[in-house]
Protein 1
Amino acid sequence: MKPFKPEEFLILVVDDISKNVQLLIEILDTVGYATTFAIGGKQALERVKSVKPDLILLDLMMPEINGLEVCKILKSDEATANIPILFLTASNDKEHLIKAFEQGAVDYVTKPFKVPELLARVKTHVELKQVQKQLQEACQTMKKLADTDELTGIANRRCLLEFAQREFQRSLRYGTPFCLLMIDVDHFKNINDKYGHPNGDKAIQWVVEIIKLGLREVDFFGRFGGEEFIVVLPQTALGGALEVAERIREAIASQPLTLEQDTVTLTASIGVATYTGEDKTVVGMIQRADKSLYQAKAKGRNQVIA
Ligand code: GH3
Ligand code: MG
Ligand code: MG
Ligand code: MG
């Protein structure tokens, strides 16, 4: 765990009485927390929108909007639901305590409180919040790694198939068109044989950059295997898919690549498959794209076949 640095945590103090706010801020200041405050529930809700506190010390009994209501509102909004809330109250009513926890509070302290105890609780909650944040970040990093092809940085086969299947499901449900392109670099073995595997890798990365330039934001692109790629074209009928495919084919064939001082021209063959409503899963579409690709190869490569 990272060393504890109180100044990195922003604590929002909420009370309807400004003297109480002042006292709490002075206490938090002795440790070095970053602090901000709101007088009353309404101001608290506005404050949370503009700052992102790591913890809220929330007074329970306040006129207009009381603490329980503030808590309920914050917990029902995805953007603020994760902010831990510690209630501070003069109420000895056990009902209040139970309600506070039911509304999603992490802690409940009655006034008058003991300063060291309050500070110990605050520290526990901000540290827990930090651990939670680190876990979320680690999960995101792992998901990204699990989805990404190491050589090219685009989606790997698993992620690509997942996306394609989702798109297939959407078409199945709404009857919207969609197409797949399967792109395979022609005679790629020759590149590896002549320039070596690391240069082959470089050529694959180059092809990826060229394909990317020919796609729209909504199109999805992944590495299916070696020098084979699949482009998913959502909401696109055959005419549009053929245009995209032709643009990609032309871009690859017309731009020279430099390998070991040689100017190399690569070409690619592209098979196109459209969603017809007859396939059971996207695998059927991929098989048809592969068949078209095979025909493009058989007919002399550097061409698009649907
Ligand atoms: P064609 O597709 O036109 O029929 O011929 P090809 O030479 O491209 O045929 P094939 O698909 O059989 O060969 C692809 C080659 O790509 C074989 C493999 O060594 C190479 N390859 C696959 N993955 C990688 C990679 O990650 N890096 C490099 N450098 N080469 C790779
Ligand atoms: Mg009050
Ligand atoms: Mg090939
Ligand atoms: Mg291949």
Note: The chain has a mean pLDDT of 96.
Protein 2
Amino acid sequence: AGTLYLVPTPIGNLGDISQRMADTLAEVDFIAAEDTRVTLKLLNHLELKKPLISYYRHNTEAGGQAVLGRLLAGESCALVTDAGTPAISDPGEDLVALCARNGVDVVAIPGPCALITALAVSGLPTGRFTFEGFLAMNKKNRRAHLESLAGERRTMLFYEAPHKLCATLEDLAAAFGPDRRIALCRELTKLHEEVRRTTLGQAVEWYAENPPRGEFVLVVEGAPEPEEQEITLEQGLARVEELRET
Ligand code: SAM
């Protein structure tokens, strides 16, 4: 069988095209693209001509079978989405699982990814984090999910569309409190790249006055450690005594 290559593409800056990205696109037999028009622009930029087929959220079933069939027949395929790393909050996850189930090799090429770029620049702890992707559209589900994250200690990352940002910030402030720190990473790698490091309460106020534009990754500080209870030596010894008696 052929190999499926996951080929990341720039999240806004064509300078982020890597040699390996370009070589892989040049070498594969065909490309599966989320939006063939977007990918055509990239191929034109690279002066490449390749057969393209569509693989997008609403045809993952039929599209997946079509790609798998060609891979099993020995062709190699590059999966490309509109921006960033395929399979991260965009079509691709299902295709990788399908290939894995059918014994087809998958090779992921490292490259641009909005979440890792945002985490790195956020100024918040990066050692442990949780990626939450896009929140549910449904207000009730979204709030319930955020409530369940209120005690999460790890840094949390969310993807968000600009027209939903204000509502999401309000929900975040309600669930985590207005003092929790947030880094709003906007238009990363682009001309109007901006990182706003503030609190949830201040972010709600700022964006109510200044309507958000562009693409955002929200990086939210985790919940504080519960304060350790200090006890005196006498209290400690009394506790040991107590345990001994039981
Ligand atoms: N697969 C992509 C990746 O690896 O980052 C993510 C695809 S997801 C459909 C698109 C979301 O990623 C946007 O809504 C936004 O939250 C985030 N995003 C993509 N490009 C961005 C950029 N240049 N700046 C900030 N956020 C970006």
Note: Residues 60-72 form the longest helix (13 residues).
